[in-house]
């Protein structure tokens, strides 16, 4: 299938397939792109992909690649599209950065025709499939798709091949203050730590607890307990804080929690004598009610 028929219809034609493999096929000449041969483009004429979700690059790995490029050149061409001034990069940012480090004047490239939406989704999908993104970069990429193209979380989930729960949990990380998000990037705090930390609500309190957790090496359970106590103290400052047993310490409750989140595909909290099921909006609530068989066909509540 030619690129004009395969790529011109939009990314809906390749959702559910291996985008990384498709890009590799283009670069290896196994998919026609309308360009008869590989061309060389001045690196100074190439603008980085504005939709590249990956912000952190391993400097040591780039230096190694630059050294290889000095000796052997660039084997695999980058992918670009023509722009008003020069070219926009679509795929191959590591090769482009390393070529600049190596002092290369030109770089081999293949020109393809992607629009802005395709560029954004290709960048996101390729990086996720190659596992190059940290969780904050991934969350910001999902958020950009939702805000720019008005996707629902369900649509994002379908396009990236991840569960809706995964997308929801990552998007919630963006409620953290930016410095706390950086702790996650630096792996000073785990996903379990910051999921509990979100319950603190206020940015100042999140920062305080995050710093204390790092300094004292808190476990996830300790973070959960500290958040509960801090919230209780804020609501009732004159009342002594009484720590209730955490039902999640019970192995049977832990298994029930896992099964509930798998069933509802959304975050679930189990507290003493209660269960909370999170929903994003009215459509998400309808989905949950349908799972519980509480809504008849036609959307009427039984």
UniProtKB/TrEMBL annotation:
It is found in: Cytoplasm, Nucleoid. Keywords: Chromosome partition, DNA-binding. Residues 39-128 form the ParB-like N-terminal domain. Coiled coil: none annotated. GO terms for cellular component: chromosome; nucleoid. Its main location: cytoplasm. CDD domains: SPO0J_N. InterPro entries: Chromosome_partition/occlusion, HTH_ParB/Spo0J, ParB/RepB/Spo0J, ParB/Sulfiredoxin_sf, ParB_N. The keyword Glycosyltransferase does not apply. GO terms for biological process: chromosome segregation; positive regulation of sporulation resulting in formation of a cellular spore. GO terms for molecular function: DNA binding. NCBIfam families: parB_part. Belongs to the ParB family. This is Chromosome partitioning protein ParB.
């Amino acid at each position: 299938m030619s690129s004009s028929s395969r790529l011109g219809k939009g990314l809906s034609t390749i959702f559910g397939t291996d985008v990384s493999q498709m890009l590799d096929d283009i670069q290896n000449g196994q998919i026609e792109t309308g360009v008869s041969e590989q061309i060389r483009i001045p690196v100074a004429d190439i603008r980085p992909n504005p939709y590249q979700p990956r912000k952190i690059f391993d400097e040591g790995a780039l230096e190694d690649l630059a050294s290889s490029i000095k000796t052997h050149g660039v084997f695999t061409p980058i992918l670009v599209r023509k722009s008003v001034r020069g070219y926009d990069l679509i795929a191959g940012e590591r090769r482009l950065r390393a070529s600049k480090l190596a002092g290369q004047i030109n770089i081999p490239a293949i020109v393809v025709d992607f629009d802005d939406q395709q560029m954004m989704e290709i960048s996101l999908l390729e990086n996720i499939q190659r596992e190059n993104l940290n969780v904050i970069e991934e969350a910001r990429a999902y958020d950009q798709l939702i805000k720019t193209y008005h996707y629902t979380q369900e649509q994002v989930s379908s396009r990236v091949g991840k569960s809706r729960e995964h997308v929801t949990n990552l998007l919630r990380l963006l409620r953290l203050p930016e410095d706390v998000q950086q702790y996650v990037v630096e792996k000073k705090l785990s996903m379990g730590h910051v999921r509990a930390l979100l319950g603190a609500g206020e940015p100042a309190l999140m920062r305080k607890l995050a710093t204390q957790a790092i300094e004292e090496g808190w476990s996830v359970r300790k973070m959960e307990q500290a958040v509960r106590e801090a919230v209780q103290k804020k609501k009732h400052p004159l009342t002594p804080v009484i720590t209730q047993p955490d039902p999640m310490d019970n192995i049977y409750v832990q298994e029930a929690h896992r099964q509930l989140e798998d069933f509802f595909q959304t975050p679930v909290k189990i507290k003493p004598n209660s269960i909370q099921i999170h929903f994003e909006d009215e459509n998400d609530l309808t989905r949950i009610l349908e799972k519980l068989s509480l809504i008849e066909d036609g959307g009427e509540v039984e």
